[in-house]
Design a protein that fits this description.
This protein has about 375 residues and is mainly beta. The protein is about 5% helix and about 45% strand. It contains 2 helices and 28 strands. InterPro entries: Host-pathogen_enzymatic-act, N2O_reductase_N, WD40/YVTN_repeat-like_dom_sf, YNCE-like_beta-prop, YVTN_b-propeller_repeat.
């Protein structure tokens, strides 16, 4: 189990700070200007847990870190503004979404070299690779774009597109059984953003689930049993006069738990506490056993850890009407909060080691990585 007193946060120091000085190339907004502020935006790990891959949004590169020694082992220049990446199950290739270049870079991990650039739709911001490693699904989140592009990893080519029910698919996730693709739709201008459940075999949307009064959808993960998904987002209060920011009267910060069965519950649960707000929740990671959820809170420079047994117990025991009421209860988070662990500045993405014993956070503004020892039994 996780015990608050046993959770340790260790900031990776100068030896593993993400620095543009290591990069063979790096570009800003399409120019050829190197940067010393790489902006690590996304972090993922090799299947064997040996290597971390950090996508540097401003440095236009991917940094390799040895997870055991916590040392930078290399940096690979990719295209403009990489925002997400995924490793093939065999650990041979890294697929990197280059948002501003509208492309995916294929990086040979052993050679530490980009070997191909694949053109995709507008602003690719999320990617997942199928369990068999044969297919990559790329969320193209441009404000007037509603496509998930499908890449054949054997041919390293885009082969088709899956069309979502609305614009702005930001991130995707694959169900544990490999049959369903879920996409969060961060549709510009809508205050009722939503989630598509897509049948992978047919490529068709089978259900669209609305998260009422939501904005800034950032990440989505499945529970290991596939019965629920979690989505990070904010809740705007634009129907209220702006008198004060306290007590969640402008925005609240939420994690929504959605039952994956057709017509299931949508539980918009608060992450905020009174006078202690989880501003701008971003990337997530789920403990391999489904016991804990780790959330990078970009605006408060910390990782929030939730007890999923308590979260799901609340969802199962409450009606939809009761859950709708609980959304604004700023004392509720204490029922399922395990800890809030300080990190570097602006953690935009988190990932877990395969055994769940370490959580890694990519800190966008301080250009480094935080290591959290979870002490999971």
């Amino acid at each position: 189990m996780i015990r608050k007193g046993m959770i340790g946060a260790v900031m990776l120091g100068a030896a593993v700070a993400i620095s543009g000085g290591v990069a063979t190339a790096g570009y800003i907004q399409g120019t050829h200007v190197k940067t010393d502020l790489p902006g690590p935006f996304h972090i993922t790990m090799s299947p064997d847990g040996s290597t971390l891959f950090i996508s540097n949004q401003s440095g236009h590169s991917v940094t390799f870190v040895d997870a055991r020694t916590q040392k930078v082992t290399g940096e690979v220049a990719v295209r403009v503004q990489p925002e997400a990446s995924a490793v093939t199950p065999d650990g041979a290739f890294l697929y990197v979404c280059n948002a501003e270049s509208d492309s995916v870079s294929v990086v040979d991990i052993q050679r530490k070299q980009e070997i191909k650039e694949i053109k995709v739709g507008d602003w690719p911001s999320g990617i997942k690779i199928s369990p068999d490693g044969k297919t990559a699904y790329v969320a193209c989140s441009g404000c007037m774009w509603n496509a998930i592009d499908v890449i054949d990893t054997g041919r390293m080519e885009k082969v088709r597109s899956i069309y979502t029910s609305d614009y702005g698919p930001r991130m995707v996730e694959i169900s544990p059984d490999g049959k369903t693709l879920v996409a969060i739709l961060d549709t510009v201008g809508s205050i009722n953003r939503s989630v598509d459940f897509i049948d992978i075999a047919s490529g068709r949307v089978v259900e669209n689930r609305v998260i009422h009064e939501s904005s800034n959808l950032r990440d989505v993960v499945y529970t290991p049993d596939g019965k629920y998904i979690a989505v990070t987002h904010q809740t705007p209060k634009n129907w209220l006069p702006v008198c004060e920011a306290e007590n969640g009267q402008v925005f609240t910060n939420n994690v929504t738990i959605i039952e994956t069965k057709a017509g299931g519950k949508v539980a918009r649960l608060p992450l905020d506490d009174l006078n202690n707000y989880d501003g701008n929740p971003y990337g997530m990671a789920m403990d391999p056993k489904g016991k804990y959820l780790y959330i990078g809170v970009r605006g408060m420079h910390r990782v929030t850890i939730l007890d999923m047994d308590k979260v799901l117990g609340l969802v199962r025991s409450s009606t939809q009407e009761e859950l709708d009421y609980l959304r604004d209860d700023l004392g509720l988070v204490r029922d399922y909060l395990v800890a809030r662990v300080p990190t570097g500045l602006g953690p935009s993405s988190v990932c877990l080691s395969p055994d769940g014993k370490f959580c890694y956070a990519a800190n966008y503004f301080s250009n480094n990585v935080t290591v959290i020892r979870t002490a999971v039994d």
